[in-house]
Amino acid sequence: MTAQRRPLPARPRKVPSTVRLLWRGVRGRCPACGARGQYRWLVNVSPSCHNCGLQFERIEGHFVGAVGMNTIMSLGILLISLLVSIAVTYPDFPVLKLMLANIAVAIAAPLVCYPLSRMLWTGIDIAMRPLGPDEVDWAVVLGSVNKWVGHTDMNTDSGNSE
Ligand SMILES: [Zn+2]
Questions:
Q1: If you measure from the C-alpha of residue 39 to the centroid of ligand 1, how many angstroms do you get, rounded to a whole number?
Q2: Residue 78 falls inside a structural domain
């Protein structure tokens, strides 16, 4: 189900900042409006936002960047896991237990990071290539920004909660 899109107002007051786009993305929310529920069971990511109508695959091949983000996030988690497990068990390293534990982390991290990396990459993409006038329901997107800073005069029926 795609939300009905309303066009960009002639003079928008605020659009989501880069920090907000990235913060929403890293939490697995729609970067444009902050709506939750963009994926189920980690690997089943919705093609568009149910709240503002943003198509997450903005251009063909868009999610190649998400694969890169997933790799970076997963390797970061694995590095932290390795360093913590070595620090906790120093100086007597139970090599087999450490290997098994970190192999489990290496398998789980990309699966857990997959939807987050897709949303984060979409946020990075929006920061680099701003949203077009017909790409989202601007009343929802601007309402999510204005609600955050205390403005309530935008007429929105958004269901997001940030
Ligand atoms: Zn959205």
A1: 12
A2: yes
- Domains in the chain: how many in total? 1
What are the Cα distances from residue 60, in Å, to 43, 56, 63, 84, 137?
19, 11, 8, 39, 22
Residue 84 lies in a domain: yes
Residue 138 CA to ligand 1 center (angstroms) comes to: 10
Distance from the alpha carbon of residue 109 to the mean position of ligand 1, in angstroms: 25
What is the value of pTM for the model shown? 0.74
Which residues are CB-neighbours of 82 under 8 A, at least 6 positions away? 98, 102
What residue numbers bound the domain in which 64 lies? 18-148
Contact status, residue 24 vs residue 34, Cβ threshold 8 Å:
yes
**CB 30, CB 49: distance < 8 Å:** yes
Contacts of 122 (CB under 8 A, 6+ apart): 25, 31, 54, 56, 58, 62, 66
| C-alpha to C-alpha distance for 49 and 159, rounded to whole angstroms | 11
Query: For residue 65, how far is its CA from the centre of ligand 1 (angstroms)?
Result: 19
Rounded to the nearest whole angstrom, what is the distance from the C-alpha of residue 75 to the centroid of ligand 1?
28
Predicted local distance difference test score (pLDDT) of residue 67: 93
137 is a domain residue? yes
Whether 159 maps to a domain, the answer reads no
pLDDT for residue 152:
43
